[in-house]
Amino acid sequence: MKIALGQINPTVGDFSGNAARIIDCSRRAQSAGAGLILFPELAVCGYPPRDLVERPLFVLRNRETAERIARETRGIAVICGLVTPAAAESGKSVMNSAALLKDGTIAFIQSKMLLPTYDVFDEMRNFAPASSQELFNFCGKRMALTICEDAWNDKHFWNKRLYRFDPVEALVGAGGNFVLNISASPFWVGKREFRREMLVTIARNYKVPVVMVNQVGGNDSLIFDGSSLVIGPEGSVIAQGKSFEEDLIFFDPDQLTGGIHEQIAGDEASAYSALVLGTRDYVHKCGFQKVIVGLSGGIDSALTAVIAADAVGPENVIGVGMPGPYSSKGSIDDSRALARNLGISFELLSISDIFCSYGKVLQPVFAGKKEDETEENIQSRARGTLLMALSNKLGAIVLSTGNKSELGVGYCTLYGDMAGGLAVISDVPKTMVYRLSRYLNSRRQVIPPATIDKPPSAELRPDQKDSDTLPPYEILDAILEDYIEDLHSAEQIAADRKFDLDLVRRVIRMVDRSEYKRQQAAPGLKISAKAFGYGRRFPIAAKSEG
Fold first, then answer.
1. What is the DSSP string of 190-214?
2. What residues form DSSP beta bridges with 178?
3. In the chain, what is the straight-line distance between the N-terminal and C-terminal CA atoms, in Å?
4. Which of 112, 290, 404, 526 is catalytic?
5. In whole angstroms, what is the distance from residue 199 CA to residue 227 CA?
């Protein structure tokens, strides 16, 4: 008998679509000789459902859909994640559960015990934890069925554990000899390697096979990489799924052999694949087909446009050049060249007259005052207005092009370059923007070399350079990583990096004072361990440490 892993891409709330995926995958697995197939955490309703679970109809649809899947997959046992009602005394309405569907019925339900409340996770808000878990027998194996976080508390792997109880330890101690884990484990660069080592530690410590099926696809800001794994008792990988695409994986639980499907390797290739997948799913799952990207001739908008073309097809991407009074001819030419290389449409809309009109209207109020960032921001906001007008008229979603470095220190304009429905590279530091762009050009030169080589500039005043306002991006990104991801103090960053303390404090003040901008930004795609958004919750009205 073979066991299969159904690495699918569910959509939150799409019960009929998710069921169709589960049923189709189960039938294909059955035809290939599998007796059991596993699907990811909350595969029936999609993950994360967040406050949708508070709607009684949503919970009812979970049960009805699971029963329908059971009826239509007779002949193969199916394990899939779903929401189930919680006991009234728990204070919560639902639990995060896994159901074993067998012989046309729901034969067994196991609920999640460890509910994460860190980073992007807030499961204690929505779910009641299980008070206990049980083994179930299948083909001579004592199966220990766990759900995602249940496997993330092994004392042999973590220096500091978040929970007192370890469900895997308890189930194996009760006689379990085969660990199953259904997951919705979000991606960040380095996560796949980290997750593999954690699962290897469990397998080696308990000398049991460990099976993990992971969701794939993008849901809002989160990207799920798939990369499902089967680990043998000695820690060897005996089966694995592809990264960033749906897959069906088989393995033999007795011989401990299986299919090894190639995964995308390297930080740049993985990050790029994640961004493409996250963009495609966000656009399509939100009901759009076409996207709009403002093209400045700079590297950020160029990278965003390449991602967009790969995500939704070049025929569905509209590039818009919006030169102003300080835009260089080279930037306009680079935008045209990029659009031509990608095969996307290109529109050129000058903002010079609009900018002059703003100046005339505001002149009586601004009389006697020097030009400053105000006039720069007017240019950016004029561009944002044009992009949103095109969005309304054409029914296309605007992709904003700001990177993590700019968003971190507030080097961006509310209602201007921040306008849009998705901030594609808002979790990509500027230095990584360059790395990704060079990686793309190493495959096929699509980004004009001048775009990569010229000093970065917003081109909102004569001879403007980013370096006029910001430290070199190599220094800025190092400070941001230490402060945002590792929570280091200014003194610690300056000492560890050998940076000037006043410079570090200035950057930190910029970060803290820009919180109000970030909380008004479009959602972004998470590819780092700590992204801006609902995984990083800081107050707006607070005194800066810097």
1. THHHHHHHHHHHHHHHHTS-EEEEE
2. 143
3. 62
4. 112
5. 13
Which amino acid is located at 3 in the chain? I
Write the single-letter amino acid at 291: V
Report the CATH number of the 2-265 domain. Answer: 3.60.110.10
Number of neighbouring beta carbons within 10 Å of residue 362: 14
Q: If residue 392 lies in a helix (H) or strand (E), which one and from where to where?
A: helix 373-394
Could you tell me the two tokens for 250?
Answer: 């088989």
> Which of the residues 2, 25, 41, 515 is marked catalytic?
41
Q: Would you tell me the crossing angle of helices 329-342 and 299-312 to the nearest 10 degrees?
A: 20
Q: Give yes or no: 112 in active site.
A: yes
DSSP state of 305: H
Q: Which of 25, 45, 80, 148 is catalytic?
A: 148
Report the CATH superfamily, name and number, of domain 270-408+419-470: HUPs (3.40.50.620)
pTM above 0.85, yes or no: yes
Rounded Cα distance, 274 and 66, in Å: 30
Q: Which of 474, 473, 454 is nearest to 464 (CA)?
A: 454
Condensed to tens digits (0 to 9), the pLDDT of residues 468-495 reads 888 999 999 999 999 999 999 999 999 9
CATH topology match: 2-265 vs 270-408+419-470: no
Spans of all domains in the chain: 2-265, 270-408+419-470
Query: For residue 23, what are its two tokens?
Result: 């049923």
pLDDT value at 220 more than 80:
yes
SS3 of residue 15 by DSSP = helix
pLDDT digits (tens, 9 = 90+) for 423-460: 999 999 999 999 999 999 999 999 999 999 988 877 67
CB contact at 8 A, 231 and 199: yes
Q: Which residues contact 407 (CB under 8 A, 6 or more apart)?
A: 423, 426, 514, 517, 518, 521, 524, 532
362-to-358, 368, 378, 386, 504 alpha-carbon distances in Å: 6, 12, 11, 20, 37
Residue ranges of E strands in 207-246: 210-214, 216-219, 222-225, 229-231, 237-240
Beta strands 216-219 and 397-400, pairing class: unpaired
